[in-house]
Amino acid sequence: MNLILLGPPGAGKGTQAKIIETRSGANQLSTGDMLRAAVAAGTEVGLKAQEVMNRGELVSDDIVIAIISDAIDAPDCAQGFILDGFPRTVAQADALEGLMAEKHKTLDAVVEIRVDDEKLIKRITGRFTCGNCGEGYHDEFKLPRNEGVCDECGKSDFKRRADDNEETVRKRLAAYHAQTSPLIEFYSAKAKLISVDGMKDIDDVAVEIETKLASM
Ligand code: AMP
What we know:
This protein is of the alpha/beta class. The protein is built from 9 helices and 8 strands. Helix 4 runs parallel beside helix 5 (90-102). The chain is globular and about 50 Å long. Adenosine monophosphate binds at residues 9, 31-32, 35, 52-53, 56-59, 64, 85-86, 88, 92, 163, 172.
């Protein structure tokens, strides 16, 4: 199964991608995670992307298209892929169509996760993760059971994303509305789009996605 998860930053694309991954065997491909790994590794791509990401703007289409072109060919995508954070512009969506045709792959569905902006700001600015195992936490909604200690792995190495501050989040949301939201119409016109209510609990969102995909 090949899917796209579409939605503003903080809508829960990464969380839902992981649930679908476990259920279906398709592989999550997050361009944000791949770019952050490139920044951490200090690669040429990372050096180009870092400042743009810290400003809350979009990295150039060429860079992310090249990343995705390689990633969807990798053996871990043999059972499909779940694109999380890509495409983010109409140019990226056009390029993806070309890549998939070339590689004889088909897109099964695009899942739009809808959440309102003010909720997103609260969700994003409060989130942090365990730097060791990746477990996600939130200042208000999910603190570790023992302060400063990860519930999952017991380590005390928490981190926050550099772009999760309110000023940058507002810019990321503006980029979403200006550059990414036209994709809702783009995929709706191709009868590929399903929309789910991302304001519900994680498990309820997952059920809504599963049900709507099954009835496509
Ligand atoms: P995310 O983890 O999806 O919120 O992405 C974090 C940041 O990485 C974004 O604000 C962009 O700067 C960059 N980024 C991730 N995916 C893309 C993409 N498909 N196109 C352009 N920039 C991207």
